[in-house]
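Subject: for your reference before the review

Hello V.,

The reviewers asked for a structural picture of the protein, and I figured it would be easier to keep everything in one thread rather than splitting it across files. Below is the amino acid sequence we used in the manuscript, unchanged from the supplementary table.
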Amino acid sequence: MTIEEIKQQHEEKWLSMPGVVSVGIGLGRGKEKVIYVGVSTSIAFKDCIPSNIEGYKVVVRKTGMIRAQNDQESKSDPQ
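And here is what came back from the structure prediction:
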C-alpha cells in the first residue's frame, strides 16, 4: 500500500477522535514520507494512534485548535 492509501484508510477514524484536528502527509527528518496527525490538546494518543503503520512513521503533533478563515479574514489578516 502507498502512504496515501494508508492515510485514507485511517483518516476518518482518527479525525473522529476528540482532539484530533488534522491528518496529513509530510517529510520526516530524513526526508522520508510520514503521516502527521495534528491534535489540539496534549492528551496522550499513543494508545489510539500507532507510531508506525505498514512501515510508515506516524507522528502526532500538538497544533492547537485549527480554525478556517473566510475570505474577508484572510484579506485583512497578513498572517
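For the response letter, the relevant points are probably these. Strands lie at 20-27, 33-39, 52-53, 56-62. The chain has a mean pLDDT of 85.

Happy to draft the paragraph if you're swamped.

O.
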